[in-house]
Amino acid sequence: MAGIFARTASRAVGVDVSFDFARRAADAQPECFFACAVAERLPFRDQSFDVVYVASVLQYTEREAALRDCARVLRPGGLLVSIENLYGSPFARAARVFIRITRRAYPARQTPRRHLRLEEAGVYLRHFTSMESRVFNLTTLPPFLAARLLGRRKPFARGLYDFFHAADRRLFGTVPGLKSAAWHIVICARR
Length: 191
What we know:
6 helices; single chain; four-stranded mixed beta sheet; Rossmann fold
């Protein structure tokens, strides 16, 4: 994502808790700056950025501290875009059970502390003046896997994936209670 932001912004800064990952990313994308840090203590001055983008990060952090620091580094009116896994997804729950049963172990930094529950999304308003959210990926895991296996650029896989996304939107509109079973949520919050 840093490369995409670098093409559209005056500067792009990536952060990762792994020094090796940050170094590899810097080698691959010399137009970006990368830092090794934790989200709870970002190594930037107050009000340094117009946009902060976090994807599947807050579940690995102390959420309140990470949100507070994201707000700290944003300029007034700045935008936080956060994409997170939701707790209620049956696919995510099945994956967690599979990991426990097979006794797979991930490094501590890759083990979620706590997934966000849909009803907890308001936590962003403790640190930001406004927020909007949208859930997605209810029925899309099977076509997502098919798209990955077939190659994302294959028209069939893309069309199948788009079909299921449209079905999700209709389902969420018809049965709002299904939102808590979605796989992901995107939250846009203003400082």
